[in-house]
Amino acid sequence: MQTYTVHRKAGRQSVLLEKNVALISVATVAGPKEGAGPLSQFFDRCCTDIFCQEESFEKAELQMLEEACYLALGKAGLSPEDMDYYIGGDLLNQIITSNFCARSLALPYLGIFGACSTLSQGLALGAMLIQGGFARYILVGTSSHNCTAERQYRYPTEYGFQRPAYAQWTVTGAGAVVLGPAGEGRGPAIEAITVGKVVDAGLKDPLALGTAMAPAAADTIYHHFQDLKRQPNDYQLILSGDLGGVGKKLNEDLLAAKGFDIAPLYGDCGVLMYYPHQKVNSGGSGCACIALAFLGYFYPKMLTQELRKVLLVATGALHSPTSYMQQESIPAIAHALALEI
Amino acid sequence: MQTYTVHRKAGRQSVLLEKNVALISVATVAGPKEGAGPLSQFFDRCCTDIFCQEESFEKAELQMLEEACYLALGKAGLSPEDMDYYIGGDLLNQIITSNFCARSLALPYLGIFGACSTLSQGLALGAMLIQGGFARYILVGTSSHNCTAERQYRYPTEYGFQRPAYAQWTVTGAGAVVLGPAGEGRGPAIEAITVGKVVDAGLKDPLALGTAMAPAAADTIYHHFQDLKRQPNDYQLILSGDLGGVGKKLNEDLLAAKGFDIAPLYGDCGVLMYYPHQKVNSGGSGCACIALAFLGYFYPKMLTQELRKVLLVATGALHSPTSYMQQESIPAIAHALALEI
Known about the structure:
The structure is a homodimer.
Chain A: E1 9-10, E2 14-16, E3 21-30, H1 32-35, E4 45-46, H2 57-75, E5 85-90, H3 96-105, E6 109-111, H4 118-131, E7 138-144, H5 146-153, E8 169-170, E9 173-181, E10 189-194, H6 209-228, E11 237-240, H7 244-257, E12 266-268, H8 269-272, E13 284-285, H9 287-303, E14 309-317, H10 321-325, E15 332-340
Parallel strand pairs in A: 3-4, 5-6, 5-7, 8-13, 11-12, 11-14
Antiparallel strand pairs in A: 1-2, 2-10, 3-9, 7-9, 10-15, 14-15
């Protein structure tokens, strides 16, 4: 039997890259509520209309995703033809927004589903494909829309459903990244990847997603540290996707119980997305939450080297409305990327 | 700027592998109708009950997928702990079957959505990750269930909806593959991959999926030949996933119009899955269609070298019930894998 060497595995769940794949350009398109939030000035575009002048919320979401993709390409001075693959996913059934976006891009397409963990799953896959020599440039995109997601997962927003204090608000927006060869002035490189396992804490409330996802975030961050023999202080910032206020605290507590104090350098995009007076309760959620906050606000801080080492941990709740109605618990996942410039 | 070499790209959409990643073991679990069909004796297990003694169709589908995964692992003499990743997807909203299967496997998980193209998308990604040095073994699984898919995409089967002559029958079953290092007696290697683009012929009838997917199959096969300067005769068999009788003929015609006569060596798993008296009209469909037919029937023929070169082309219709109701057309995709032993 032929022997075979695995070069890049570190521990059980992590791989180390050679720092030659970078996020060479990024773009963000935000919805009206996000455009009225504290990060407003950092987005490339803010829609003033939740419909984006389209006929349906679904078409609005697609318009935002397509615009983010073309903006990211434009900033890199590249066209769709320069991309080897489009990797995308979103929250909607059959990831329909991504499928239609892939149709207009006309690129070889790898559709993924990781719910709100899509951004880091897509970047992880893209980085491995480039590092493996299968591509030079890959476009990664994701989106969510409050009104498409709420009516699919919970109730149509027109019902005016009362949300509990621990509920989160699905972010409306889209983000896209061009992954390509790293180099001087080419953006932060992806230096390590920890692909998450499904963690199911047995919770069943589809309004308490931060609580359901926090154990998955803690598990992935813990294994990232273990696999790579790292400590929280190896990063300047640990950024989770959309745990919100409730889930963020739980993630801190779970990691503290395992001996890792991340609190001093830990932020959550769901907490950062809105002002308190915007009444989103526990914070933002959705694929676009980490896409808007990281790509809009933190990525430029990496370009200026204000931040040099960031651990990006997008988290996803992988339940479906059917599994919820069948009284199943909520499976969750988180994927971590170490970024360095 | 640092230069970067793409080693493995061939043409626009294809990559060449070094033939050191093989399908080292496979397993299939079929439903009752499939177990009464012509391929019956080639499946590892046939359920006699559409519920598999579970409480719901969804749980039945999950049971079949989990069993296929554990059977494939057992045949390879490996356990979940030996796998670096689980890559899976299915037809259900939020790929819930795969998510729950990943929960029981407790492996780093990459969820994908490619509808009925899932098997070849998963094998393509898995092969690239192993070839790239990011994994040694990867488990790839997929499933579909007639009753979970029909009620989600069309009508609950209990309604007794009348199906037109061109409609297909969603296959009930699951298949799993252990990808790992190639070698003597280790199964067929993945030698080339062509990742498909979304092709949308403007069709809107969700019962005519073979017709909607055939242009995507023809596009991918055409680019496979162009990229790699190959001809149909370079293979002993070209096998599509689930175009059914109507779509198979259309695919042949589309390729003939581009100068490639595949008809003499072309088979479609949807056509092979059932007897005419089983009244499935245009044939089988669903993620499990190519999984059962290829992994159950053709894979053993590759092990005995009766077949040495096969082009495997799983096709997927990427629409959603929402996009259909919003009068959108059906985006389709196909991914091709060249297998060689």
